[in-house]
């Protein structure tokens, strides 16, 4: 099943270059929290351009040094997405489960949606559906209609695949 994947374009390259520049500025100025966030953004950009292993290593290095649950969640989640794109489904699954220990409700919906997509690829359709429905419920409760529509599309794709 094909889920929406990020596409390499000028905007992605621009965001990656901007994040690299900001990371350098924050490193020089000693702003560790801002540096951590930029490293997560750099990791995501590296994943999109195809450097998935490097992206996962960078994201996990942020997790090790993180001082906030926000950075712990997003760094581990970014590592999971990068591992998923790299084809390391078991590693991605571990990262997504680990990220949930630091997640608020909205963040949990991201983790569940990515786990649902991963489980589709592993052929675990019932588990995938359960995770996608749970993500959808959270997104509806939080009134995140744009995110809910993404989850609804994933559920529709899963139902089409199972039919």
Textual characterization of the structure:
The chain has helices spanning 10-29, 32-48, 52-65, 69-86, 89-100, 105-121, 125-141, 145-162. The chain is an all-alpha fold. The relative contact order is 0.10. The protein has eight helices and no strands. The chain has two domains: 8-91; 104-163, Serine Threonine Protein Phosphatase 5, Tetratricopeptide repeat (Alpha Horseshoe), CATH 1.25.40.
> Order of helices and strands, N to C?
HHHHHHHH
Query: Portion of residues in helices?
Result: over 70%
Average of per-residue pLDDT values: 94
Low-confidence stretches: none
Structural class: mainly alpha
Number of domains: 2
Q: What keyword list fits this structure?
A:
single chain, 163 residues, mainly alpha, Serine Threonine Protein Phosphatase 5, Tetratricopeptide repeat, 2 domains, 0% strand, globular
